[in-house]
Request: fold
Amino acid sequence: MDLTSINPILLLASLMVAATPIILAAIGELVVERAGVLNLGVEGMMITGAICGFVVAVNTGSPWLGFLGAAVGGALVSLVFGFLTQFLLSNQVATGLALTLFGLGLSALMGQGYIGIKAPSFPDWHIPLLGDIPIIGPIIFQHDPMVYVGLFIVAGVWAFLKYSRAGLILRAVGENHEAAHALGYHVVRVRMLAIMFGGACAGLGGAYLSLVRVPQWTEGMTAGAGWIALAIVVFASWRPGRLLLGAYLFGGVTVLQLNLQAAGAEIGVEYLSMAPYLATIAVLVIMRAGRAPGSLGQSFHASR
Amino acid sequence: MITLEKRPQPSRLWVFATPVLAVVLTMLCGGLLFAALGQNPFETIRTIFLDPLFSEFAWFYRPQLLIKGAPLVLIAIGLSFGFRAGIWNIGAEGQYIVGAIFGAAVGLAFYPMESIIIFPLMIVAGALGGFLWAMIPGILRVRFGTNEILVSLMLVYVAEQLLASMALGVLRNPDGMGFPGSRNLAQYDSATSWINQSAGLHWGVAFAFIAVICAYVALSRHIFGFNVRLSGQSPRAARFAGVNPSRLVLICMGISGALAGLAGLFEVSGPAGQISIDFNVGYGFTAIIVAFLGRLHPVGILLAGGLMALTYIGGEIAQSNLGLPIAAIQILQGMLLFFLLAVDVLTNYRVRLGKRGIA
Reply:
C-alpha cells in the first residue's frame, strides 16, 4: 500500500463534497423532527430527488433547473407522507418506510431511459481572493455552488430556529403539540410545511449525488445515504451545528476508505466499503443522543 | 367539513375490511399507472393478479407461488412480534443474508460428504446467523439506547458487502473457473432444501407453515403473546405487569433475526442454489409490507404473503408478455402499503360529515 499517494489537501476538499448530500438531507430532516414528525422516508425522497433532478437537468441542459426540479419532486412525494400522517393519522414509522419503498420503485421507473447518460456539467466555483489562499483555498473555497448552498441552508435553519418567531412556533409544536394547539397554533399546518421543507432538502441531496458526485443515474444510487442522514440527525441531538460535524465526520470516513481502496490497501474492497455504515453505527453508540423533541413521532388529533 | 372522531374501540368490521379495501384501491390506482405507461390497465391487472392462478400455464406458476411466498411469510411472522411491541427491526434483509452465509458455509464445509446430519446442522447455523446479526441492534438498543431502526438498517449494507466478499473469496467455488459464487447447494443432495422441486416444495415452505401455527398459538394462547401485545398498546401497563422491556426487545429481535436467517438458508440451498453477489432480492423489505398487510396476525400474514408472491410472479409474467417494467411492480407494492396505512384510519376513527362545532 502506498499511503504517500493520498494527498491530504485533496482528501479534505473531497470530504466537503462527500458530506454535502448528507448535510442537505439531514438539515431537512432536522427541521421535520424539530416539528415533532419522524419521517423515515428520507431515502425515498432522496432517490426521487436524484432522478427528478437528473431528468430535468438532462432535458433542459441546466443543472440549476435540475436542482429546482429535485426540490419540487422531493417535496411532492413528501406530501404523500404528510397527508397520511397528519390527516389520516397513520403510524409515522410505517409510513416513512412505505415512502422509501415507493420512492425506490418510482425512481427506477422514471429513470428507465436515463441509464448511462452523463449529467450536464456543473462547474466548480473558484471564489476570487479566498480561493487563492494556499491550502485553505483549495479545501474550502473551490467547490461547486451547491456545497455553499448546503452550508447556507444549515446557517439559515440555525438562525430560523434560534431567533425567529416562526422557529419558536415550530419548536413549540415539536415539543408539545397539545400545548401549541391550545395556544392557537395550527399544528398540522406547521408540520405539513416542515415535512415539505424536509422533502425539498432531501431532493436536493439526492440530486447532488446524481448531478455532481457520480454524475450519472443508476438505480438505488443513494445506497443508504438517506438513512445515514437520519442517523446524523440523532447524532447531532437535533442541533444544526453538530449536524455539520457529524456530516463531515461521515464524509471523512467515506473519502478515506475510497482513497485507501485506490491506494491498494491490504484489506478487501468490500470491507472498506462497510466503513461508512460501521462508522455510523459506532457514532450512534458512542454519542449519547441529547433529548429528542417531546412530541417526536406522535400523531396529533385535535379532539373536541 | 369532514372530521374524525375517535372510536372507543377499534372497529371489528374494518380490521378485516381495510386490507381488502387497500388491495382494491391499489388495483384501481395501479390500473391508472399502467394506463399512463401505455398498457391496457385491465389486461395488466388481470395478468398480475389472475394469470398466475388461472391461466393455461398456471401449473407452472403455482409452485412458484410457494417458492416466493415462503421466505416472505417466514420473515414477516418474525417481524410481526417486534412490530406489535413497538420494536422496529427493519434490517431483516441483512439477517436473511447472514443466515444464508452461515448455513451455506456449514454445508460447503462438509462437501462432498453425504450424511443425513448435514442439513439439520445447516438449519441451526442459518438460524444462528440471522439471530446473531439481529442481536447487534438488539443489544446496542438495550445496552446503549441506540435506535434499532437505524442500526439494523445500516447492517443491511454491511451484510451486502459481506456477501460480496464471501462470493468472491472464502466461499467461492474452487471448481468454478474463477467465476464469483459458491458451489451449487441445490445439486448437493445432503445440503439441499428441496423436497419436491417440480411442486415448489422445499423445507422453507414447511417451516413457514409451522411458523404461522406457532406464532398463532404464542400470540393468542401464551403469556408471551399477551406481553407483546400489552407492550405495544401500553408500555407503562406492561411494566407494571412485570414485563422486562429489555428482555422483550432481545426476544423479539432474536425471533425475527432467526426466522429471517432461516429464510435465507432455505433460499440459498434451494431456489437460489448458491451464494452469489446478487443473492438477495429484497424479501426482507417486502416482508415488512406483508407483515402490515396481514395486520400483524399470523393467518393474515399467510394470506398477505400469498398475495405478495402473486404480484411478484404476475409482475414477471407482465414483464415478459406485456413488456411492463419490473419497477412498476415495486411501485405497486409501495402503493399497497400506502393505501393500507391510509384506510387504517377507518379502523380507529369514525368519519363524520358536517359543520365543525365551536370547541
Observations:
- The mean pLDDT of chain A is 85.
